[in-house]
Amino acid sequence: MAELAEFFQQKIQEGAKSFVNHLAILLKTAQIHEQTNVAVEQAVEKFLSSGNPLIELEKGVSIEIVGDYIFMNGVRLRYSLDSLLNFDYLVREFKRRELGGLLIKEPLDTNETKKLIYILIGTDPKLLNPFERIEDAILNTDISKIRVEKLKKVKEDLEETLDKRKAVKKTYFRAVSLTKGIMSSIKSGEKVNLRKAKRIVESIVDTILTEEISLIGMTTMKDYDEYTYNHSVNVSILSITLGQRIGLSKKALTELGLVSLFHDIGKVNIPAEILNKPTNFNDTEWEIIRKHPIWGAKVILNLRGLDEVAIRAIIVAYEHHLNYDFTGYPTLSRRFDLDLFGRIVTIADQYDAMTASRVYSRIPMSPDKALSLMMERSGSFMDPLLLKIFVNMIGVYPSGTLVMLDTKELGLVFESSPLYVDRPRIILVTDPQGNRVTGGTIDLAEMDKATGRFKKNIIKTLDPNQYNINLAEYFL
Amino acid sequence: MEKGDIQGKGHKEGLLSEEIKEVRDIVMTLLKTKKALRMYLPNNPIYVNALTELFWRFKSFFKTNENLVLRIKQNEILYEDSTVYSNPEKDDNLALFFFKDGLRELTFKNGLREDELLEFIRILNLDFEKDILDDDLVTLLWEKDFENISYVVDEEFLTDENIDVDAITEQMKNRTAVQGDLGRAYEDAQFEGVPVQVTAGEVYSLSDEDLRGLKRYFERDAGENRTSKVIDVIFEILSQEKEFEGFSGVVSSLERAIEFFIKEGDFRNALALLEKINDLSRKSDVLSEKARGRLKIAVVNVGREGNIKEIGNILDKEDTVVDENAATAFLKLFDKISITPLCHLLSELKNIRGRRVVIEALVALGKADIKAISKHLDNPRWYFVRNIIHILGRIGDRTALEPLGKILIHEDIRVRREAVKSLGMIGGQQARDLLIKALNDNDSTVRTSSARALSAMKDASAIEAILLEVNKKDFFQRSPSEKKEFFHILGETGGSTVEEILIKILRKKSLFQKSRNDEMRALAAFALGIVKSKDAIPFLEKASESKNRTLKLTSEEAVRKIRT
Predict the structure, then answer these.
(1) B249 inside 8 A of chain A by CB
(2) Coil, strand, or helix at residue A270?
(3) Predicted ipTM?
(4) In the prediction, which pLDDT does A362 show?
(5) Is A421's Cβ below 8 Å from some Cβ in B?
(6) CA-CA-CA-CA torsion for A104, A106, A110, A112, nearest 10 degrees?
């Protein structure tokens, strides 16, 4: 009985995914072709043959956009890599038109479907109130089986927001504390409690799934006193986020989070006076630093033997400085395929290290500069495809970037926008006259309704490190 | 207060107490189901019935409620502030079981499916005390991501220090003593800074080709043999170790890695690792003598008693799938020092699979130290002694003949029988003499085994000994099956001497004890049929006319055989 119920649940999920997939394909096709084109006819037919049985079975279907996810009849649709592009496209097109959802009460016919689709694509998202335009257009037709819903802005009251931010901070600080504990246990030869580490990583994964931007924001706070621990946590957060972007399962994300947390574990063998040296390393010191991937592999091997997690952790610890083109360290007697998690961690590690400035250079790079340097190294030091996704994830202007707006105000990038990679949310730090201000945040994706243009634009980026700006002062 | 209110309140309280009773029953049934699964197989009716009852109770509760929220305390489980479970003991305490991993609230939602409940019970029954299990209860619930079971956890215990978010925040905010120089930044921005050129994020959006690329990444990742890769990595590290101490440290890690594989029953990877160690230990052009010596010690260490015991545990587990070939090949790589503990293991093993693996390994290892094997021949357990004899026979070393000769007087027939088989396998004059001796054993099966072993030697004096046995006066008295077996062996052995003697027996006439003589003639005819002796045809044809039915039929059959 249970198996049968599960079977039906699975079938419904599959049907729902296929329905959404075909809706996206239909929208795409309609954007290129006229209503009478055979490609449109075929796309409509596929959409109806996948959707109508579901509408009939479920006695109506609602498709809702919540955050970056699609829900059908209240259930979040989990999609595979094959459908990623179509799902993303649908979310983007709906959001651009402020469309939050469709409620289809009864099975549709070809005529109604075409009308709806051409109303949707015919509504210019740049115009004022696109949702109201869609709603009006539908009312003016004979479409009675479909209702549209406006996109709900995820509004939270201040207390709720503060609670969430506090929870995010707690997750972050707890992870740092645990990493510190693990490293100190290893140094003193004590047993490491992996169950606790797993639990912490799970809470990071959960936070990323709900509060991704806030947690990434935490990685911009560089605490030099606790650098190694913060760096490990940051790399774990950035790796999990990248893993989530490429569609890894929750279990795989935990594994990725765990192995990335241990990627620099070999540094426990580096003398503190070298690790915390305030000036540049000499050749001998570099030689020692370069041993940490090998030491890391050995530490994990001694710690865990060769179970599934340890195997991956050893590989990642060993490979994370090898570089995509094997020009890094340690030197190999023969090449082997680099591990997927290893390539992810390499990117996260380089980004965090560049912006934190402990190993690569004594002067930290501004986040945008680090990102552009990484783009230069795409295909040589780093996997180009994963790096592309990473840049998308961080945004063109990563958190912590100091920017000047066309209004002459200075601001710090606070959160990237899920819709526009180049239009983040900003914390204003000066007014147009250069006077210090506190507390104001603006969303650069916000448009002026009267002109249909963006209200404010970034015109320049600056390096916040040159001006001793303590990001914690603004972000925490 | 109005009377109606009191009545209403009373009614409400009545409903609530009814509900609490229902929840209490659910918790008790949950406990019963958990225990049933611990004791019985999942298809056992006791467990199946308990699970059905639990599911039915949940369903009944959800007829009037949307959720069942249980609050977890150290020794109590509460529903709506009422205790529905309480246990002050440490053992078998369901509340404590949840509480110790930080679980503080457990919610079952209307819509709970049987498969979810089944999986939930399965998780509850895992042995979380085992070190080998990396996941706690919460991790497993988290990974399962149940649609209709949710929970609230307290994570304070995960870190040793208390995380005071506000204090840390304040500390971080105040860390930079110098306030940011915003004025200078503002001034600089007028003239310096990087002008913005990015137009849109479209540059970075993923193409279909990118997605295909990602799909290939996943496919490669799923198909990758990471264990083999990590072994390569470790040997890469080993090859780059310049200091002996470091080298030795990595080798120790490898020893531990093999121990881990043994515990997991993963003999394939244990073999791969030990093979690599063995290969490297022979490379004098790559490694110093000292380093090679260390690797040889590693081989010795891997084959020490503790590991061998562990191997025995795995091999004896009926429900564990073991790659027998890999396990055998792995044990074969051990040092000869492992022979004694392997012999001890062989004497303990209950499973035929395990014995097969160890015997094969001892056959390979034993060549280097026969005494280490043969010293176990005086073990009181007959079945173990029989295995040792089998191993000695397979090894085929003649130094084992002396102890094997002594065992020919062992009280157990099965042991003596195995001994003659092994003597046959070893061969040689000494073995032949011992086998001839065994032809006089008081057990017929030992005698026939011995005859068979002698015939396999294809040695004239060995055949002669069998013929001598057949021609003995008292041979008549032996059992029909033994007699037949002896003649069968003679037939198989063939050769002119045998043929001649068999014809002689076939033609033999006797006035006395005619039936016994005819029986011997029939046996000779039977053997001649196996020899396919054409010279014997006229005599067989004549014998076919005999009134003795057995002789007649056997002779006819022999002729038929020879002619086909």
Answers:
(1) yes
(2) coil
(3) 0.71
(4) 57
(5) yes
(6) -60
